[in-house]
Design a protein that fits this description.
17 helices; mainly alpha; elongated
Amino acid sequence: MQFTAMVLMLILASTLVVLLPRRVMNDSVLNRSRWLMVGGISLVAIQFMLQYVFGFRQMGVTQAVMVNLLFFIPCSSLFNLSILNLQQKGSLLRFDVLAGLATCVGAVIAIATAAYVSGDALADTKVMQWAEYTSGLFYCLMQSYYVYRLFVNNRQLKKTLNDYYEYQAQHLLRWMNQSVVLMGLMACCVPFLIFSSGLLLLIYALLIFFSIYYITFSFICYCVSNDSHQVELAQQNAKDEGIADKTEKNEPAITDVELQRVTNAVEKWLAAEGHLRSSITVATAATAMHVPQRLLRAWYQKEGFESYSDWLQQLRVKHAKQLLVQHPEWSVDTIAEQCGFSSRNYFHRIFLKLTGQTPSQYVASAQEK
């Protein structure tokens, strides 16, 4: 298992180093996240190599745990920083870096002190076991902080995407959300499973393999697809508009004069069926209305909509209900196309979400009335 894990880690690291440069070398954010991830994977590969060559697991649980902690803590920190770097568009906070560094230093000091007291770094003593329990606690605290940071950033990034695109774009962040869950699960399992053996140890090892593989493979797919470009456009727009760091509670202000101006512009835009065209970002809509994005955003929030995508979906579903009643002979694909939805499945999902009925059920209930 150790040999297989070592080979798998080397393959993943080589994939990031060799296959991605042409696609990410011109993007400083993706490039930095790539190298942070390569560093984390390399540490795991070294850890498994040491376990395989020197047989720490055969020496005893304490010896194997010591090596695991000394390598997994910086590995987890690098993986967390890699995703945080993507979320924050390359602007890592100093404390994000210091949290991982402090945890690594704390674990090294605890284990080194225990080794000095025991007189042997590989001695299976109570002092060494307590040092490893302490290091495991440091690891859990570090990962708890990172999970919180990743969760908050993901929520803000989701709002940024929904405030820019006509559709709910959280699918672009799904791998980040799942990565947060996996890394949090790994950290929670450390105090309970790292000293175990047999089946429990096998389950924990498989969790580590799967998590690292999933995060790395998802990152590669994110880089080679158009997802990273879509997220970057929304982030850049939020930065240009000065809303990148605002939360739901800090709604932009709008005067009565500005409110009336945007209302008139929106009514003209709706009369021209601008909302029924596909691929309409908030920037496109604001340009067509001849109003600043910040005013349009303030206007639909004033109207009770959380995001641009929520507002546009309500408008399109309202129009879809009219077409379903007026043209029951039309197919769902035709209705979806006429209302600006990108696909039949997406139209079906949004219609069900907002009305509680499928399009066919809505037509049937309308005919009964």
